[in-house]
UniProtKB/TrEMBL annotation:
GO MF terms, alphabetically ordered: transferase activity, transferring alkyl or aryl (other than methyl) groups
Transmembrane regions listed in the UniProt entry: 91-111, 117-138, 145-166, 172-189, 222-241
Location of this chain's protein in the cell: Cell membrane
Protein name per UniProt: 4-hydroxybenzoate polyprenyltransferase
């Protein structure tokens, strides 16, 4: 009789984290994270727009997949396995990016018309500005200190906030501005946390990020301050009737993120910490589903 050994909890955890790592490297996880952001933004805004998370998820997948083609030099140092995959399968990667973008754009146009389509394309425009020099001899915005992270954070904050409004046919108001500010701060922190993981490659290729310029210790302090500011914005949203419940439920999630930021320079497991950071948005997505 043959006996099949059961997987230990450690083996299950290793398999799960490895799967999530590959999902992150191939931009699948980024798409899910972006969809969760849009879902949470919709509940804060008090709108029903089920197509918005789908569109944001597809566009995010497309943008980050395309970015893998533009970042082969840096990724060869930071993420050699991903860089090798992209180098070996450039046509497949490009096809996935184009397919995701076309599908996302089509759903945006169908669900919310031209306004939704314009909003959905904001990250695409930002990606081009980020990766391609604006003029011959100019540096890429990706290489410019603070501008690089600020552009990425603003593009995603605007998209996850405005797309639910565009799909629902609702105007921009003070609550939308606060929600956009919240996601700008959250996105800024997340990008710089990932930059800590990528600091070796960024330094080698001349990309100026907070950890490259300030060092990891000072970066941790700056990001902890921004985490605190986003927590304050969330508290400020609690008096708004339709935002009160999701904002209250999200307070522990942002506090959890602050704890991750606080140990930024005290861990060598940056891949795991980055996965945990993405997990923040998955938790916010669960809050959106719950309320």
């Amino acid at each position: 009789m043959a006996y099949h050994s059961r997987s230990t909890p450690a083996q299950v955890w290793q398999t799960l984290t490895h799967s999530l790592w590959w999902a992150q490297q191939l931009s699948v996880l980024q798409g899910v994270v972006a969809a969760a952001k849009a879902a949470f933004a919709a509940v804060l805004l008090g709108v029903t727009a089920p197509a918005a998370p789908v569109v944001v998820g597809l566009v995010s997948f497309a943008v980050y997949t395309a970015n893998d083609l533009a970042d082969i030099e840096e990724d060869a140092i930071n993420c050699p396995e991903r860089s090798s995959f992209v180098t070996d399968h450039p046509v497949v990667v490009a096809g996935l990016a184009v397919g995701g973008l076309l599908l996302g754009a089509g759903i945006a146009l169908w669900a919310g018309g031209p306004d939704a389509l314009v909003v959905a394309l904001i990250p695409v425009v930002a990606c081009v500005l980020y990766s391609v020099p604006l003029a011959p001899g100019w540096r890429r915005l990706k290489d410019v200190f603070v501008v690089n992270t600020g552009l990425v954070a603003l593009a995603w904050a605007s998209t996850v906030t405005l797309l639910p409004l565009a799909v629902a046919g609702r105007p921009i108001g003070p609550v939308a501005v606060a929600v956009c500010l919240f996601f700008f701060l959250r996105s800024f922190v997340s990008v710089e946390v990932f930059n800590v993981r990528d600091v070796v490659g960024d330094r080698a290729t001349g990309v100026e990020t907070l950890p490259v310029v300030l060092g990891v210790g000072r970066t941790r302090q700056v990001l902890a301050l921004l985490d605190g500011c986003s927590l304050a914005v969330l508290v400020a949203l609690t008096p708004v009737a339709h935002a009160a419940l999701p904002a209250v439920f999200a307070l522990p999630v942002v506090s959890y993120s602050l704890s991750l930021t606080w140990v930024l320079d005290r861990t060598n497991a940056m891949d795991t910490l980055c996965l945990a950071k993405d997990g923040e948005y998955l938790l916010l997505g669960l809050v959106a589903l719950a309320v």
